[in-house]
Amino acid sequence: MNDFMLKLLIVAAFISIIVSMIFATEDERSLAWVEGSAILVAVLVVTSVTAWNDYKKEEQFLKLNAYNDAQNNIIVLRQGNHVEINFNDIQVGEIVQIKPGMNIPCDAILVQGTGVTTDESAMTGESIELKKETLEQC
């Protein structure tokens, strides 16, 4: 309810109801409240729709964050076992399993793989994907 216009409309609605009830004739008094009440109903509808829309946006935002958090996991080889960990928990010297389309969260030496290319445009500005070779082939 931080919107100035909505507050103004609510005040105007109550003023309309009060003024209409005071200055209405006996015949008009039974319907004098309708205009002000219509303004209040309109404000209620607008705030309800806005609240529902904000709720849905927040729900989608939380789903997107959960998806991104899941994308920040990576499989590493620790003590002979494949373990899924968060990017932030990678330690120096670990062997990381790289999959097509994933973000590589660290500097690395390619141990095994063929036809590996990386898009380093976010870091270097280079728009062409760079071919990567294993250490033995370099």
Count of domain modules: 2
What's the β-strand tally? 5
Give the strand order, joined by hyphens, for the main sheet.
2-1-3
Computed CA radius of gyration, to the nearest angstrom:
31 Å
Relative helix content? 40-55%
Terminal Cα span: 64 Å
Q: Structural class, from secondary structure content?
A: alpha+beta
Please tell me what the overall shape is: rod-shaped
Strand residues, percent: 15-25%
* Integer average pLDDT: 86
H and E string: HHEEEEHE
Largest β-sheet summary: 3 strands, antiparallel
Number of continuous helical runs? 3
Transmembrane segments: 34-53
GO molecular function: P-type calcium transporter activity
Signal peptide: 1-24
GO cellular component, one term: endomembrane system
Walk me through the topology:
Blueprint: H1 4-23, H2 34-71, E1 73-78, E2 81-86, E3 95-97, E4 116-118, H3 121-124, E5 130-132
Antiparallel strand pairs: 1-2, 1-3, 4-5
Helix pairs in contact: 1-2
